Amino acid sequence: MAKQIKKVVLAYSGGLDTSVIIPWLKEHYDNCEVIAVCADVGQGEELDPVHDKALASGASKVHIVDLTKEFLEEYVWPTLKAGAVYEGKYLLGTSFARPVIAKALVDIAKREGADAIAHGATGKGNDQVRFELTVKALAPNLQIIAPWREWDLDSRTAEIAYAKKHGIPVATENKTYSMDRNIWHLSHEGSDLEDPANEPKNSMFLISCAPEAAPDAPEYVSISFEKGIPVAVNGEKLGAVELLTKLNEIGARNGVGIVDICENRLVGMKSRGVYENPGGSILYYAHRELEYLCLDRATYHYKEGMAIRYGELVYDGMWFCQLREALAAFVDSTQETVTGEVRLKLYKGNIISAGATSPYSLYSQEFVTFEHDDVYNQADAGGFINLFGLPLKVRALMQEGQK
Questions:
Q1: Counting beta carbons within 10 angstroms of the beta carbon of residue 148, is it exposed (0 to 12), middle (13 to 18) or buried (19 or more)?
Q2: Are residues 229 and 268 in the same domain?
Q3: Which GO BP terms sit in this record (predicted)?
Q4: How many other CB atoms sit within 10 Å of the CB of residue 206?
Q5: Are residue 265 and residue 233 in the same domain, yes or no?
Q6: Interval 238-288: pLDDT, tens
Q7: Global pTM value
Q8: Annotated binding site
Q9: 345 DSSP β-pair partners
């Protein structure tokens, strides 16, 4: 296989793992050409040194692709509209970033005439699955190389020694946590978090302030939606990137969106993670508030169950599977009337409802009022209850007859 691979496109982050992978690929795959691809999904200043670092590590070419807008509009917003959350807490920040990155890898691999795609995901995690399933769905003939499943560099110390041996520039300081960042979230794993009994340290937070350090006065924010998609904050129309950036700032200073979960990884083990997700938490809360107004009971309840399955598919790396696409079509149908404005109160880590309006609201004060009305005959409820409860009555009579 090594002789067949002449050109590899590598998902490159600039960190120790992917920097070491470049010379490792060349060493173990017959001095193949390695093209580094760094995907910008809103991780900020982390990208500044990657171009020169990739070339210094032995890459023949470096692509830095800005995927932030595509990431939000084509991956985050559909998941938000679905209301998909993994295991009740995790807003899928890493999960739906992987398919957009892998799609970019495939596009560049096709343009460059590459034989294979490589990634730096470990054999213990979910990301290996997400990257590789996307490649299989979009380019089934491309080979996939996962060095962590092949090499004998079984520790950070071993990787640093390999880097020094090959003259690869790497930062040698050991970060406290393993982190993944994009415009949607920042995740923290490892170190003291590996013991679920340990409370997360406030010093760990890099985006949000700790709730107890947030201002003593609440802050109000309004979010406008059109067909389930957020389009404005506090009355100001904004594009996807600008909108989320603004909500991240608002949520972060009020300490909202910090999630601590011991989740079930796809590969079978439990993993403890702490996520900072200020803007995303606000959007999920606001979107749900608007659906309370705009969706009928049967649709809302069915969509609740569907959202669990949708979240599992995204978490499992099945973004491009037929079921996810079919569920997305159902979601889009439900969102035709999810238009309006939601007002929220943010206070020391809490998101609190403060009113919602929609031209498609199904709420009718005329029907629900405790005051006098001319539209609802309360006597109708008796017949409804008799028919609705008939199976219970028949079963009870049967049980009495058997005594």
A1: middle
A2: yes
A3: argininosuccinate metabolic process; L-arginine biosynthetic process; urea cycle
A4: 12
A5: yes
A6: 999 999 999 999 999 999 999 999 999 999 999 999 999 999 999 999 999
A7: 0.94
A8: 11-19, 39, 90, 95, 120, 122, 126-127, 130, 178, 187, 263, 275
A9: 220, 352
DSSP symbols for 15-43: SHHHHHHHHHHHHHTTT-EEEEEEEESS-
Claim to verify: residue 208 and residue 115 sit in the same structural domain: no
Please give the structure tokens belonging to residue 329.
Answer: 């079509």
Task: Please count the structural domains in the chain.
Answer: 3
Domain check: are 383 and 282 in the same one? no
Amino acid at 80: L
Measured distance CA(351)–CA(345) in Å, rounded: 6
Q: Are residues 185 and 280 in the same domain?
A: yes
Edge to edge, what strands does the sheet with 258-264 contain? Answer: 178-181, 186-189, 270-276, 258-264
Which residue ranges are tagged as binding site for L-citrulline?
Answer: 90, 95, 126, 130, 178, 187, 263, 275
- Active site residue ranges: 17, 98, 127, 178
Distant-in-sequence, close-in-space partners of 71: CB < 8 Å, separation ≥ 6: 41, 42, 96, 97, 100, 182, 183, 184
Binding residue numbers for L-aspartate: 122, 126-127
CB–CB of 7/32 below 8 Å? yes
User: Is 224 found in the same domain as 307?
Assistant: yes
Q: Kindly report the CATH number assigned to the domain that includes residue 157.
A: 3.40.50.620
For tokens 């990137």, what's the residue? 241
Q: Tens digit of pLDDT for each residue in 99-144? A: 999 999 999 999 999 999 999 999 999 999 999 999 999 999 999 9
- Are 148 and 121 in contact by the 8 Å Cβ rule? The answer is yes
Beginning with the edge strand found earlier in the chain, give each strand of the sheet holding 33-40 in spatial order.
61-66, 33-40, 7-11, 116-118, 143-145
Residues 347 and 249 in one domain: yes
In a domain, 84, yes or no: no
